[in-house]
């Protein structure tokens, strides 16, 4: 499956709708090497762990859907506050260490200049490009948020079981339309999922030990035989769109 041009446009639209005061090249004077440092770091490490591209893009999406793209998903919980990281939708996020390492690289060049929110936005873009996806221009100048609540993440991030109506409402609340929903959903093609997240469709769709009839029969049989061999598998990863890393 090939990435298509509209994906670039929707990503730009998504970013602009949550941060209207951003601009391209925000760090040109204060930290001119910032974007190249991020691109070089991503380009060095993502080829060795291509699934991290999907992880960074997912983290960026989860960040943007709660309080805008402010990096609040990166904040740790404290003794008095459960941060976004603790929310159920974010407990399977990967890449926090990657972002921390990248932040250290940028900080060494320009201490206290580039926000974590911008680093995440740029890293997600660059990671997608490194594995063969599209490139889109990312306006920068985000300010890191100081508020991070697990309850907000739980209520704001769309659930994998959400129906079309609720998804459209959720996206509309952020200035996004049905086309944006379809295109952003298409970003899952570069991702992976644990068997447990869809095993009910293979083994117990209606609670009677049956298979989801909408699944392609050949594909479902292949999954049962070679990947998700039983309904209790919690560790095996499956490509969302098999072969998409190479096409």
- The CATH class designation of the largest domain is Mainly Alpha
Gyration radius (Cα, Å) is 19 Å
User: What's the order of the H and E elements?
Assistant: HHHHHHHHEHHE
Task: Work out the count of structural domains.
Answer: 2
The CATH architecture assignment of the largest domain turns out to be: Orthogonal Bundle
Strand content: under 5%
Q: Biggest sheet, strands in spatial order?
A: 1-2
Would you tell me the structural class of the helices and strands? Answer: mainly alpha
Distance between the termini: 6 Å
Please outline what is shown here:
The protein is mostly helical and 247 residues long. It has helices spanning 5-18, 34-45, 51-64, 96-109, 116-130, 150-156, 164-172, 178-185, 199-203, 217-226, and strands spanning 192-194, 237-239.
Tell me what you see in this structure.
The chain is an all-alpha fold and 247 residues long. It is built from 10 helices and 2 strands. The protein has helices at residues 5-18, 34-45, 51-64, 96-109, 116-130, 150-156, 164-172, 178-185, 199-203, 217-226; strands at 192-194, 237-239. A two-stranded antiparallel ribbon has the order 1-2. The longest helix has 15 residues, at 116-130. It is globular. The termini are close together.
Task: Show the helix and strand layout.
Blueprint: H1 5-18, H2 34-45, H3 51-64, H4 96-109, H5 116-130, H6 150-156, H7 164-172, H8 178-185, E1 192-194, H9 199-203, H10 217-226, E2 237-239
Antiparallel strand pairs: 1-2
Give structural attributes.
247 residues; mainly alpha; Peroxidase, domain 1; 2 domains; two-stranded antiparallel sheet; globular
